Amino acid sequence: MGRPVAGEWVSEEFAGLASAGFDVVVSLLEHAESFELGLGEEKRFCSEAGMDFELYEIPDRGVPLNVRAFGRLCLRIHESCDGGKRVLAHCRAGIGRSGLFAASVLLLAGFEIDEAFHVVSESRGVEVPDTPEQVWWLRENESEIRRGGCA
Hints:
globular, 3 strands, mainly alpha, Protein-Tyrosine Phosphatase, Chain A, 8 helices
């Protein structure tokens, strides 16, 4: 999804996400970008709302810089989903980085790459991911992601 709404009601935004049934929030924003968007204390907002928080910084319109760390995050989130937890993943617009992330988690559920991007695109109502580089990256790193970042 796109980023949560910041501003004077930011705590209420996160409480609303928890009330909607989300257990885990995954942010793919970079550090400076989080502060620019008013989400610099997102971990605290999640904690106050009773949700877990995961951060994996990816440059806007970019790709993960550490495939193993990204693969381990995908595995943790896949296991959370298998355990019944509801996960919300976001970047700035909810297309590129979060689309790549969601498709990567779906690989661990047995989806093929094109099928995973199609499912995420249908769910979002917009074609994901944002750049050809993001598609290429997942194709190049598919086996590492399917292993959950484990060699």
